[in-house]
Amino acid sequence: MKYTQIKETCLYISDLDLAENFYGEILEMPIISKVEHRHIFFRCGTSVLLCFIPEVTKEEENLPPHYAVGKQHVAFEVGKKDYLKTKSLLLEKGITITHEQEWRNNQTSFYFEDPFGNVLEIVPVGIRS
Predict the structure, then answer these.
(1) β-bridge mates for residue 99, sequence order
(2) Predicted pLDDT of residue 127
(3) E strands within 13-78?
(4) In sequence order, which residues have a C-beta less than 8 Å from that of residue 61 and are 6 or more positions away?
(5) What are the φ and ψ backbone dihedral angles of 51, each rounded to 5 degrees?
(6) What angle do CA 18, 7, 57 make, to 5 degrees?
(7) Helix (H, G, I), strand (E, B), or coil: what is residue 56?
């Protein structure tokens, strides 16, 4: 099989407005769709970040039921030239970096959390973990 990308990634949240502020305003992802009391979807490059209220989607009838609990993880890729700028902008916006990782070939990434406790990571293009 030859996959081209992960088209959608799902996180489970408890507050749509808080997610809209964090992902839409702080992380600057355009909103694709918002359905009150259910979900908010964001454009992230060529992919889509789906944020669902798990209490609703675990009872889904039109689609397969789905939900998760605990610390979920998503890594967002940025251009090599944009890596330090992204880090600086997030720090300016009050985001706390919880961990910095050095990978092979002196490549680095950094981690932070969203308001729901999900573990997010910024990686530069070409990083190999």
Answers:
(1) 111
(2) 84
(3) 31-35, 39-44, 47-52, 73-78
(4) none
(5) -120, 115
(6) 50
(7) helix
- CA dihedral (92, 86, 114, 94) in degrees, to 10, reads 0
Question: 87: closest CA among 123, 129, 38?
Answer: 123
19 in Cβ contact with 13 (< 8 Å): yes
Secondary structure element (H or E) that encloses residue 12, with its range: strand 8-12
In degrees and rounded to multiples of 5, residue 113 shows phi and psi of -115, 150
Cβ atoms 34, 16 nearer than 8 A: yes
Largest CA distance in the chain: 48
Tokens of 51: 């944020």
Residue where the block lists tokens 């030239």: 81
Beta strands 47-52 and 39-44, pairing class? antiparallel
Token pair 């789906």 in the structure block, residue: 50
Residues of the chain with pLDDT under 50: none
For the whole prediction, is pTM greater than 0.85?
yes
Backbone φ and ψ of 121, nearest 5°: -140, 145
Residue 129's pLDDT is what?
60
Whether 44 contacts 90, CB under 8 Å: no
CA distance 20 to 62: 25
